[in-house]
Design a protein that fits this description.
The protein has about 100 residues and is an all-alpha fold. Helices cover about 75% and strands about 0% of the residues. It has one domain.
Length: about 100
């Protein structure tokens, strides 16, 4: 039977707890940031017409296809081109696309 060094074990557990708290805080911060981003996207997408949204999606897909082609030519695995077909503002905003950045073109 081996002897357990309790001081080392307690120290290790304290360190683990510290890392887990830091990770929890990072996840919480990232979640809040994503929620704020989604809210901004939804607000900006409300002012867009269906034509504007379709144009933005076409530009995004062209950009993604170009980057996928570049990755293929460089030998990297291809990027999965997004195949979402919905053009409603809430659906686009919920998808996580950064409509707000492209809408300012």
């Amino acid at each position: 039977m081996t002897q357990v060094n309790w001081k080392d074990r307690i120290s290790t557990l304290h360190t683990e707890a510290k890392h887990l708290r830091a990770q929890r805080n990072r996840v919480s911060k990232d979640l809040k940031s994503a929620m704020r981003k989604n809210k901004r996207i939804m607000e900006r997408a409300k002012g867009l017409s269906e034509v504007d949204i379709v144009q933005i999606l076409v530009m995004k897909r062209a950009k993604t296809a170009t980057s996928a082609l570049g990755a293929t030519l460089s030998g990297d695995p291809p990027v999965n081109v997004d195949a979402r077909e919905s053009t409603s503002a809430p659906a686009i905003a919920a998808s996580g696309d950064d409509v707000a950045a492209d809408a300012e073109l």
